[in-house]
Amino acid sequence: MSAVAGHGAAVRIENCGKTFADGTRALEPATLDIARGETLVLLGPSGCGKTTMLRIIAGLELPDTGGKVLFDGKEMTSVPIEQRNVGMVFQSYALFPNMSVADNIGYGLKIRGMSKQERAKRVAELVALTNITGLENRRIDQLSGGHSEIEIKDLKVPADNLLGGEGNGFNMGQHRLAYGRLRHGMHNIAKAQRALDMAVGHVTKRSTFGVLLADRQAVQFMLAECASQLYIGRLMLLHIAYKAEKGMDLRQENSIAKVYLAHMVHHVIDTAIQLHGALGFSQDTILAKWYTQVRSQRLVDGPDEVHRWRVGRNVIKAFREHGTTALAAGGDLL
Question: Is residue 269 domain-shared with residue 190, that is, in the same domain?
Fold first, then answer.
């Protein structure tokens, strides 16, 4: 807990719950008191309502009937966001990627016409309050996430700390990677589906030369190809998940799907960008960022070439042993 002199207000959340129009229960009724100057961290699993609670405090959402939001004892439940004097910094792509951390923090103050000198002072206070001194001049994408490099030099590990048995480290890593690739595949399916939805949402509104993009046969062909690849990818994942659940050997199918899904998500996002035109390549949608991210899927957890080499070798092995390549090509399905 810490305080900043002269800033903030006591906040009370009284019996605030949130149920959306489709019946989704985003937040169970909760009561919470936050003292003036207190720093409070909300922790909980995904979907428990942390963001919904913040949005209710900021005024972006109204709580269910009976819920109240009070600042210094004054009810603010129905007060619009622009009159609440609340700052809310969103996560990830909702931030401004072209601005530093400090510029993102101070953006609202800038819009409100605060002088540069006063703005810098307030930003410095918040930087100190949140213990991120030294990070304020970094870009958003330089804060966390992604892959890092670790240098291990002259490290000696006691024998009592050995895990999994001497010489078994590679096998343990491969076991983890098998299920990790399955999760990567799920993420790729989700991203590809969202990109396809965005593409269709755009072409059903955008017209060129008096014709809706969605009515052009070439565009329909592009969408059909994406839908087909998504369908194939889903079937691959279901097959692998089935084999994993049954404790069956899934290495061959995993390698096939790993390569296919990495190319699939790249192609679907690329198609979505193409259909959005210059908008898709800008930072106004998430597509350009995804396009850069998913390219790594053809490298991480084994590059395409290694997986294809192994798959091809197993195809030949299956034919030599059984007279057919079926067992190396999902033949246990049919």
Answer: yes
